Amino acid sequence: MSQVAPTLNGKQNVVRSNADTVRSSHDEQKGSLRSLDCIFPVAITNLDHNLQIAWKQTRQVEIVKDNEKKTVWTTAVTVAELLKEQKIALKSHDEVFPKPSQPIKAKMKVHLMVAKPLTLVDGGNLRQVWSTSTTVADLLKQQGITLNHLDRVEPSLNDTVKKNDVVNIIRVEKVTDVVEEPVQFGVVSQLDPNLEKGTEKTLVEGVNGVNSKQYEVIFENGKEIVRRLISAVETKSKQDKVVAVGAKEVAFQASRGQSSSGQDFYVNATAYTANCNGCSGNTATGLNLRANPGAKVIAVDPRIIPLGTKVYVDGYGYATAADTGGAIKGYKIDVFFSSNADAYRWGNRKVKITILN
Q1: Per-residue pLDDT tens digits for 115-159
Q2: CATH code of the region 264-355
Q3: d(C-alpha 221, C-alpha 232), whole Å
């Protein structure tokens, strides 16, 4: 009888044996030596006293990589040894489960997750990532990204991500915007029989109103996409402007100081120059005012004062009715000045005009 020291998967035990070979010793100890097991010395070695025997049992392991399964028999002690034995090199972003330090067990499944390059766009900000995730939802969880209630993801959360895919997160925000908008006042005209025709008088000044409008606004990645009116409330009422418009006809009236040389009456008198916008510089009677800046000319309504009439205008002097104008209607005249400054100084006034012929 010999004394031997068998080591099974790194654990040593001293036993006595009547066997003559290493194999028969294993059989005697009720060992189950498989053809793929590693044993040293070899099984046919004669059994000597105090012989050291090393026996590594093989275990069946399933390796799953990218949904592809492979069954192997291995004597590796840890997952890391198994990967080395199978010549599987992991890159920095790859993952393995169980962890490399975990011991190998019979019928164990070892999952290899190979990282793939992906483009992640979050709220318009683009970055390149490596991920072992299989779905969009897994990717966001792995990257520590939280979705808000209204946010959208393209592709959808349950879709599978593949190499070089682009995952786009649209950040959606809904806000309420209150805008104060002015309401323009209107103009109401009222005929006044006591006010001379061609004149106006403001009775009530106009005041703009204010409307408060509430909008629902939707932003995507900080850009306004939709603006919808929710409500509109008048917070200040407008006040229309009221203007009295003259309706009184003014007839020729001889003044008490009327001379035998003609008639006099009162008119509204404005001023003009030959250089106004749209002006040709020529009067209705053909006089070139630009060539004759010193001419004393008035524009008239020929129905009231015929062209060619000699007149005297208080504050202006002797002049000739030699021009007309689109705005010169009724008892209104336009006096000519060669300079804008003089025309501005004249302004708009009521004057007495005397017909000389």
Answers
A1: 899 999 999 999 999 998 889 999 999 999 999 999 999 999 999
A2: 2.40.40.10
A3: 28
Q: Give the H or E element holding residue 5.
A: strand 2-8
The CATH number that domain 59-113 falls under is 3.10.20.90
CB-based contact 349:269 (threshold 8 Å): yes
**Beta-carbon count within 10 A of 101 CB:** 8
- Rama region for 116: left / alpha / beta (φ>0; ψ in -120 to 50; rest): beta
- Nearest in space to 329 (alpha carbons), one of 254, 253, 246: 246
CA atoms of 1 and 294, how far apart (whole Å): 153
Residue carrying the six token digits 């009327």:
258
* Domain 2-56: top CATH class: alpha beta
Q: Does residue 285 register a pLDDT over 50?
A: yes
Residues contacting 63, CB < 8 A, separation 6+ = 69, 70, 71, 72, 82, 86, 88, 109, 110, 112
pTM of whole model > 0.70? no
Number of Cβ within 10 Å of residue 83's Cβ equals 18
Cβ atoms of residues 133 and 144 within 8 Å: no
Query: What H or E segment, with its residue span, contains residue 200?
Result: strand 200-204
Whether 264-355 and 2-56 are alike in CATH topology: the answer is no
Task: Report how far Cα 297 is from the mean position of its chain's Cα atoms.
Answer: 62
Chain segment 152-192, per-residue pLDDT in tens: 999 999 999 999 999 999 999 999 999 999 999 998 989 88
Q: Of 263, 253, 259, give the one whose Cα is nearest residue 306.
A: 263
175-191 as b/e, with b when 16 or more CB fall inside 10 Å?
eeeeeeeeeebeeeeee
Residue 194 has pLDDT above 60, yes or no: yes
CA distances from 114 to 63, 67, 93, 131 (A): 13, 11, 8, 8
Q: Per DSSP, what are the bridge partners of residue 89?
A: none
Domain 175-246 CATH class label? mainly beta
How crowded is residue 15: how many other Cβ atoms within 10 Å of its Cβ? 13
Cβ(207)–Cβ(151) below 8 Å? no
| Distance between CA atoms of residues 322 and 307, nearest Å | 5
Number of residues in the chain = 357
